[in-house]
Specification:
The protein has 269 residues and is of the alpha/beta class. It has nine helices and eight strands.
Length: 269
Amino acid sequence: MKSERRGTVRSPRDRFKRPQPQEGNPGPRDAIFARPLPRISDFHFGKETATVFDDMLPRSVPFYLEIQRMIGELVGDFAAPGTAIYDLGCSTATTFLEIAKTLPPDRDLSFVGIDSSEEMLGIAREKLTEGAFPWPFELRTGDMNQGIEVHNASVVLMVLTLQFIRPLYRERLVRSIYEGLTDNGCVILVEKVLAEDSTFNRLFIQHYYEMKKRNGYSDLEIAQKREALENVLVPYRLEENQDLLRRQGFRAVDVFFKWYNFCGIVARK
């Protein structure tokens, strides 16, 4: 696979220089919903969102950096030489860069990132290039509601992605992932989930909004974003996600992270 990197040719030693961790978030602050909006449109991943996405995620997803670190460890466990690592809904490629902090840079791998947003992919290309990402990578647009193909993958990532896929198409997508994985390959899924009990669900959501307020979001921002997400983010219960994976053939499914209404699942082919 041909790398998308451009610019000065580096020596072999420089090519495998491990990207340095970034302290804090130097990008623009998320204020998309900070002022009253006359009309709340469905949430989208265009330029406005892409520009502030690297600030939005750590402030909106509990233990976001720890989840990314855990993903990096799990990828290191399953990434087999001569295979590909896919990230479906890769957004700005933060997960690829986090993986690079723990994965041996001389392991023979290629990376494929797919996202529906060209604006997200543009930022991803800049970050991977500036971060001296040491593996060949391909970034391309794709609508996962329409189906995607996965080839020779030892790991497939869906980090806060499946919840945005229309429920009608989720079985087909997970089946495509299963068929494109190598034997003993894995899928790593991070999702917002519904609780089994309505009381727990209400309490978990309440505590989630409290977390967002601690991270600087106002009641107005929380309410307007909730309305914007209502028709586009459709969460399943944890058990429903696990059953979905098992129905498509995954022989081992387990939870590696859980916080109120967020979870991380790993499943092995």
